[in-house]
Design brief:
143 residues; mainly beta; two-stranded antiparallel sheet; six-stranded antiparallel beta barrel
């Protein structure tokens, strides 16, 4: 079996497993591979893909900052980051969390569990969310 294989993210859906509804992501393989024949339900996978791009975002959406108070004399500070540094170094320290481009980066999700395998249809169903938009190529490795 090769170290990694590529598949297309088709969609998310739900399947019944042990009398419970389980959210799964459907991945479709382009060509036949030994990977589908060797993998079985409840195996763990490491899945990589490019996350959805969110464009230029502020610190509240990008990092989960709480923003400023809504009253006590505040006017335009609701979603602002607050202070970005002290007077003493007279510069902004590297690595400061600020507004900027969010998403569109490679993301790896570990320990995703295989929910179902359909080798005749070249389909693999993985429990949970997989990074990326529908139709993007996903890299799958067995852990």
């Amino acid at each position: 079996m090769s170290n990694k294989v590529l598949a297309e993210k088709v969609k998310m859906t739900q399947i019944w497993k042990d009398e419970r509804v389980v959210p799964v992501t459907v991945l479709k393989f382009k060509e036949d591979s030994d990977f589908l024949k060797e993998i079985k339900p409840d195996d763990k996978l490491r899945v990589s893909g490019v996350s959805k791009g969110r464009g230029f975002q502020g610190v509240v959406k990008r990092y989960g900052f709480h923003g400023g108070p809504k009253s006590h004399g505040q006017k335009d500070r609701l979603r602002a980051p607050g202070s970005i540094g002290a007077t003493a170094p007279q510069r902004v320290i590297k690595g400061r969390k600020m507004a900027g481009h969010m998403g569109n980066v490679r993301v790896t999700v570990r320990n995703l569990v295989v929910a179902a395998v359909k080798p005749e249809e070249k389909i693999l169903m993985v429990r949970g969310a997989v990074p990326g938009a529908r139709g993007t190529m996903i890299e799958i490795r067995k852990t």
